[in-house]
Amino acid sequence: MIQETKDGSATIYSQQFDETYHSISGAIQEANHVFIDAGFKFCTKKEITIFEVGFGTGLNAFLTYIEAEKQAVNINYITIEKYPIKQEFVEKLNYYTFFEKKYKEIFHKIHAVEWGSDVKISQFFSIKKINADLIKYNFEKRIDLVYFDAFSYNSQPEIWSIDVFEKLYKAMNNNSIIVTYSAKGIIKQNIRTAGFIIKRLKGAAGKWHMLRATKF
Ligand SMILES: C[S@@+](CC[C@H](N)C(=O)[O-])C[C@H]1O[C@@H](n2cnc3c(N)ncnc32)[C@H](O)[C@@H]1O
């Protein structure tokens, strides 16, 4: 079911997880705050490999595309999704309406990319969407930046486990980071146990804190 969030951008309510895909305080606002501002803009490399946990609505990939173009940074975007959303939901997502007209086509191009294929969408942006379970996934590429955008710990504790963070740690380059919207105690503990150094940052609207974890 599609729901409107406070900044006017849409989100999806998942019956399976009894949770929305984004904060109801603002889907675009939250994605920009946590993933673009605290993650993407924090990276200084001119070529960045991003790994996203949960492609979902494609909002983070879409905002990253726009920012990559603005900053002339090359992005290899890898995203994993166990339960792809139906096309009827894609048609109802209004994210491109907040940007220049040309981005409508880009949003739909990102969604149309075949699962498992590495596709160059523009000079600055390539994407590979993987239809698989993160818990069983074996990483193929070295990663610079992780957008950890799973459902909450209460819904999916197995995704926020030490095992998953250890797997990420091994796949990540030195001085690479994970950003996530949650700063729950058990999550901080699991990320630290996997070897990362954590910084707690101001959260997006409706949340006190978020996390940025660095592999030094
Ligand atoms: C909070 S939603 C966010 C999705 C997306 N980043 C967005 O902005 O729409 C979490 C996503 O993780 C996906 N997911 C849940 N369990 C997963 C798993 N084991 N492996 C991969 N993806 C999973 C869900 O289907 C959902 O799309």
Mind explaining what this structure looks like?
This protein has 216 residues and is α/β, with parallel strands linked by helices. β8 (143-148), α5 (162-171) and β9 (172-180) form a beta-alpha-beta unit. It is 26% helix and 28% strand. It contains 6 helices and 11 strands. The chain has helices spanning 27-37, 59-71, 87-90, 103-112, 162-171, 185-193, and strands spanning 2-4, 10-14, 19-20, 47-53, 74-80, 118-120, 125-130, 143-148, 172-180, 197-202, 209-215. α1 packs across α2 and α2 packs across α4. It has a single domain, classed as Vaccinia Virus protein VP39 (Rossmann fold, 3-Layer(aba) Sandwich). The protein has an 8-stranded mixed beta sheet with strand order 6-7-5-4-8-9-11-10. A 3-stranded antiparallel beta sheet has the order 1-2-3, with no helix packed on it. Bound molecules: S-adenosylmethionine (SAM). The site of S-adenosylmethionine has 19 residues, from α2.
| Radius of gyration over C-alpha positions, nearest whole angstrom | 16 Å
Q: Which strand order do you get reading across the main beta sheet?
A: 6-7-5-4-8-9-11-10
β-strand amount: 25-35%
Question: What's the count of strands?
Answer: 11
The ligands bound in this entry are: S-adenosylmethionine
Helical element count? Answer: 6
Q: Write the CATH homologous superfamily.
A: Vaccinia Virus protein VP39
What general outline do the C-alpha atoms trace? globular
Major sheet details: 8 strands, mixed
Instruction: Summarize model confidence as the mean pLDDT.
Output: 97
Question: SSE string, helix = H, strand = E?
Answer: EEEHEHEHHEEEHEHEE
CATH domain topology: Rossmann fold
How far apart the termini lie comes to: 41 Å
User: Which regions are unreliable across 5 or more consecutive residues at pLDDT < 50?
Assistant: none
Which structural class is indicated by helix and strand composition? alpha/beta
Q: Which CATH class? A: Alpha Beta
Number of domains: 1
Per CATH, the architecture is 3-Layer(aba) Sandwich
Helical content stands at 25-40%
